[in-house]
Design goal:
Blueprint: H1 9-26, H2 51-56, E1 66-71, H3 78-85, E2 89-93, E3 103-105, H4 108-117, E4 120-126, E5 132-141, E6 144-154, E7 157-159, H5 166-171, H6 181-184, E8 198-200, E9 212-215, H7 222-232, E10 240-247, H8 250-254, E11 259-264, H9 280-300, H10 311-334
Antiparallel strand pairs: 1-4, 2-3, 2-4, 5-6, 5-10, 6-9, 7-8, 10-11
Helix pairs in contact: 1-9
Length: about 325
């Protein structure tokens, strides 16, 4: 039987969502009020809002230069876009999740080609070259800030044997999936690495895209806490979620040096639970603990005025956006 980190997401997550409903009712609160945990973000950033507007809810000094575009757009100044962000740059769907549809463009010609062939709403972001990536989970409950978990994202790598090419080594990787062409396209798959030579395959820090997540919460320091809390103090309406960050090294992260590449709200998973060394019970213990936090925080802010879409509207949007994202992902793989 597959380890739970490889289960279909909705199968693994179903008990968690059942817990949210049950705990909300026990607190005398409708589950539809859960978005109030992050009352400053659209529907609490339930995964259906735009990554761009979520980012703009925070003070921007920790973020890469970011803009939003809708394609096709005959009036778009591609040269200005490239000058503003530099190269390489990242283009990703505005509604993106789990790394789907992400492109890394190295020069103006690639950017022009992407702009002429893609359609939909996209975020354009300056590429952060820092080699290590982490998920940092933040909770604010009763006015008290806390980092509840840190996971390091270990990008899939292969080791050469002197006769297999990169394509063969990649498809033999234990974490390989049909999503991998989104980043394998940037490699010469016919190249044969020397025996013992290690090669990183991906730049996308997503579990779905092959990253292994480990629980590194024990690396938390006062310096890192202080740096994260300076970001969250700029937005009192964000109380539950995960920052995906890049840093020059683990030591630099411990010193509070990082760049935020994405903010995730109430739909955030405490991704340190996907550490392969954890049993299913250990993973669910972390998951359910965060479910309790989420409901308690939403209950704390239940009287805040906030526009929340109906369950029917959210379901319809989720289905439509899922189909749109999958189409964008397929176009990106074959672009």
């Amino acid at each position: 039987m597959k380890h739970h980190e490889f289960w279909p997401p909705r199968v693994f997550e179903a008990p968690y969502y059942a817990q949210l409903v049950g705990r909300s009712l026990l607190r005398g609160m409708s589950p539809t009020q859960i978005p109030k945990a992050n009352w400053a973000l659209e529907n609490g950033e339930i995964g259906l809002g735009t990554k761009y507007s979520t980012q703009l809810a925070f003070e921007q000094s920790r973020f890469p230069v970011t803009s939003c575009i809708t394609l096709p757009d005959a009036t778009l100044d591609v040269d200005d876009l490239g000058a503003r962000h530099g190269f390489p740059l990242i283009v990703k769907p505005l509604i993106g999740v789990v790394g789907k549809g992400v492109l890394k463009l190295s020069d103006a010609e690639q950017l022009k080609q992407a702009v002429s062939t893609l359609s939909g709403d996209y975020v354009v972001q300056s590429y952060c070259p820092d080699p290590t990536e982490f998920g940092v989970f933040f909770i604010r409950k009763g006015g008290s800030n806390r980092i509840s978990g840190i996971n390091q994202k270990h990008f899939p790598t292969v080791v050469g044997d002197g006769h297999s090419n990169l394509g063969q080594l990649a498809t033999a990787h234990p974490r390989y999936t049909a999503h991998w062409p989104i980043f394998l396209r940037y490699l010469d798959l016919s190249e044969v690495p020397a025996a013992g030579e290690e090669r990183q395959l991906s730049f996308i820090g997503s579990h779905t895209m092959g990253c292994k997540f480990t629980n590194d919460t024990d690396q938390l320091t006062r310096a890192l806490e202080a740096a994260v809390f300076r970001v969250t103090d700029s937005q009192p309406g964000f109380n539950f979620g995960r920052f995906d960050v890049k840093s020059p090294s683990l030591e630099a992260l411990r010193d509070g040096e990082f760049t935020i590449i994405e903010v995730n709200g109430i739909a955030s998973l405490p991704t340190h639970m996907f550490d392969p060394s954890y049993s299913l019970n250990q993973a669910y213990e972390i998951f359910f603990e965060h479910g309790r936090y989420l409901v308690d925080i939403a209950h704390e802010h239940r009287h805040v005025e906030m526009d929340i879409d109906s369950v029917t509207t959210l379901w319809q949007r989720a289905r439509a956006l899922s189909g749109e994202l999958n189409n964008m992902h397929e176009r990106a793989k074959t672009r």
